[in-house]
Every structure is written in structure tokens, then in C-alpha cells.
């Protein structure tokens, strides 16, 4: 699988960056998510220099460079530009960067400027790059946010996933993606669910057709993304199958190495599936707070 990347041009458009030099080099690829502020590198220590990362120059770095002599400044900057990082971004709309512009132009490295403060910009940049470069997987299903809890709804085609999502929307919850769900791994325990842009805000219901939930129900009916907390599979009821949830051990699904609690909900005429999903979400939240109804029930049995 090819390594995921974004271009410098995408950063320019996303964050409305001003281009000082390197207009023809905006197709440079960025493959590492976290930005870097060169510090030790300015004094000649390059043993762990992350050369493939975006380099951020804040007030601290630029003030240091201003105080150097021309010869020393050329040496300090030259040491870094020789590694050809994807780009340099100067924060706080700082000026008087003629010397920096010169060295970047000589090495064909984009030099960009933002009005935002260093801390604020790095926080936004790192989040954007982490999501853009994250390992991802496309799933057939529906993704919803129920009371702030992200849920992946799965099941065979026609089982009622979209209809269940529609009922949840009617109860004040939010759609994230219908039919095709993009899962992104943001960390060892963090899985993000989102849409693929084409299906953004759309929900397809059999016999009704395609609908835009924002146009029909308002902005609160849709959410761009959500952290996946539960994986719920909708299955058809089987009369001969034994259903005894109290004896079941917790089950998990695994996506790209991230484990997600798994629940199967069997469909039967008259069952309030949306209500069961709400109950599952609320129960998960209580478990996260350290409460287990099963443990309390066992304790009561032991006391009798």
C-alpha cells in the first residue's frame, strides 16, 4: 500500500497561508503528521532532526535568527535548508524575512506565513495532518452519533441500518455517514468515523429515496465525524437461537488493530431498535465512568 501523503498546496488552501517563495514547489509531499520547531538544529545538532516534517518558525526562532550576524545566520539556516524539509511556515505574521526568503528560494523550499499564533496554529495543523495521513478503512454500514457517543451500525444489505439511523435522527441524534463509512485510525485506541465527502449529509431510505438530513431536519441532524465507541451489528431474529444476554462475555471487533466493543441486536417486529441503541450508548457511558450493572447485580446476589 502506498504511503499516504498530503501536499504543501493543500496546507496553503486549508489554512489560507501566504506564499513568500516556492510557488512552483507546492506539490511537495508531506508524509509525517506532527509539525516540528527547529531549536537544537540551529546550533548544529541534527542527530534526530525530523527532516520530513513541516518546519514551524515562531517568534522565538525568528527573534533568535534576527540577533545573529549575517555569516552566522547563513550558517544556521543553511544547515537546515540543506535537508530540504517539505516547507517552512512562519507564524504570527512576522516580517523582515528577506534573508530566510533568499535561502529557501535557493533550495526551492516553500516559505509560507500565517497570521495565527504559534501554539494555536500548530494545534490545528497537527490535528489536520493526523486525520489526513491516518490509516483508513472503508466499511459498508452507517455511522451515527448518539448522545455524544459514536456508533458504527453494521448488518446485511436491507436489514434496516439506514431506517434505524433515520429514527435516531428523529430523536435528536446525528448522522455521520450512510452506506459507506470511512474509519480512520488516529492512535492505538482511537478510531474515527466519517463520511467520504460524496455521501456527506445524505441518507438513503428504501421506498423513499435519497434525502439530505440537514435540509430536512436542520444542521443538528448531521456531524462531520465521531470517535467510534461501539460496533453494533443488526441481524435477523432466529427463532431457534438461544438469546440470553446476561450470560454473554463482552465481545470486541477489531479494525486496524483498534478494539471496539461489539453488540449484536436481533431484529424482530415490534422491537424498538433505536431505543436499544440509545440504551447501549448510555450503558457504555456508565461503564466508562466505572459502573457495571452486572457487577452490582452479582453483589446483590452475594448479599442475599
From TrEMBL:
Gene3D superfamilies tied to this protein: HprK N-terminal domain-like, P-loop containing nucleotide triphosphate hydrolases
Keyword Ribosomal protein attributed: no
Domain HPr(Ser) kinase/phosphorylase N-terminal: 6-129
Region described as Important for the catalytic mechanism of dephosphorylation: 266-271
Residue sites binding Mg(2+) per the record: 162
Known cofactor(s): Mg(2+)
Entry-linked SUPFAM superfamilies: HprK N-terminal domain-like, PEP carboxykinase-like
One MF annotation (Gene Ontology) recorded for this entry: phosphorelay sensor kinase activity
Keywords: ATP-binding, Carbohydrate metabolism, Kinase, Magnesium, Metal-binding, Multifunctional enzyme, Nucleotide-binding, Serine/threonine-protein kinase, Transferase
Catalytic reaction equation(s): [HPr protein]-L-serine + ATP = [HPr protein]-O-phospho-L-serine + ADP + H(+); [HPr protein]-O-phospho-L-serine + phosphate + H(+) = [HPr protein]-L-serine + diphosphate
Catalytic residues (UniProt): 140, 161, 179 (proton acceptor)
Family: Belongs to the HPrK/P family.
Subunit structure of this chain's protein: Homohexamer.
Function noted in UniProt: Catalyzes the ATP- as well as the pyrophosphate-dependent phosphorylation of a specific serine residue in HPr, a phosphocarrier protein of the phosphoenolpyruvate-dependent sugar phosphotransferase system (PTS). HprK/P also catalyzes the pyrophosphate-producing, inorganic phosphate-dependent dephosphorylation (phosphorolysis) of seryl-phosphorylated HPr (P-Ser-HPr).
Other comments on record: Both phosphorylation and phosphorolysis are carried out by the same active site and suggest a common mechanism for both reactions.
UniProt protein name: HPr kinase/phosphorylase
Gene, per the UniProt record: hprK
Amino acid at each position: 500500500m502506498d504511503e499516504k501523503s498530503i501536499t504543501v498546496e493543500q496546507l496553503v488552501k486549508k489554512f489560507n497561508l501566504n506564499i513568500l517563495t516556492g510557488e512552483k514547489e507546492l506539490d511537495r509531499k508531506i508524509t509525517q503528521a506532527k509539525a516540528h520547531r527547529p531549536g537544537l538544529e540551529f546550533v548544529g545538532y541534527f542527530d534526530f532532526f525530523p527532516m520530513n516534517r513541516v518546519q514551524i518558525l515562531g517568534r522565538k526562532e525568528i527573534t533568535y535568527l534576527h540577533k545573529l550576524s549575517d555569516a552566522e545566520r547563513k550558517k544556521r539556516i543553511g544547515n537546515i535548508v540543506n535537508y530540504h524539509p517539505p516547507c517552512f511556515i512562519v507564524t504570527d505574521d512576522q516580517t523582515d524575512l528577506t534573508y530566510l526568503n533568499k535561502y529557501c528560494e535557493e533550495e526551492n523550499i516553500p516559505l509560507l506565513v500565517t497570521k495565527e499564533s504559534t501554539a494555536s496554529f500548530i494545534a490545528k495543523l497537527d490535528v489536520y495532518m493526523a486525520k489526513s495521513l491516518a490509516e483508513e478503512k472503508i466499511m459498508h454500514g452507517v455511522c451515527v452519533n448518539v448522545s455524544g457517543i459514536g456508533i458504527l451500525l453494521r448488518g446485511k444489505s436491507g436489514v434496516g441500518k439506514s431506517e434505524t439511523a433515520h429514527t435516531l435522527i428523529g430523536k435528536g441524534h446525528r448522522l455521520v455517514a450512510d452506506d459507506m463509512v470511512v474509519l480512520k485510525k488516529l492512535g492505538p485506541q482511537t478510531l474515527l468515523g466519517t463520511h467520504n465527502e460524496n455521501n456527506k449529509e445524505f441518507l438513503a431510505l428504501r421506498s423513499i429515496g435519497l434525502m439530505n438530513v440537514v435540509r430536512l431536519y436542520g444542521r443538528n441532524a448531521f456531524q462531520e465525524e465521531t470517535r467510534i465507541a461501539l460496533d453494533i451489528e443488526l441481524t435477523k431474529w432466529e427463532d431457534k437461537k438461544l438469546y440470553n444476554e446476561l450470560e454473554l462475555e463482552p465481545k470486541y471487533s477489531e479494525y486496524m488493530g483498534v478494539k471496539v466493543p461489539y453488540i449484536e441486536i436481533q431484529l424482530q417486529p415490534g422491537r424498538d431498535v433505536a431505543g436499544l441503541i440509545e440504551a447501549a450508548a448510555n450503558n457504555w457511558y456508565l461503564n466508562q465512568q466505572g459502573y457495571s450493572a452486572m457487577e452490582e447485580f452479582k453483589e446483590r446476589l452475594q448479599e442475599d
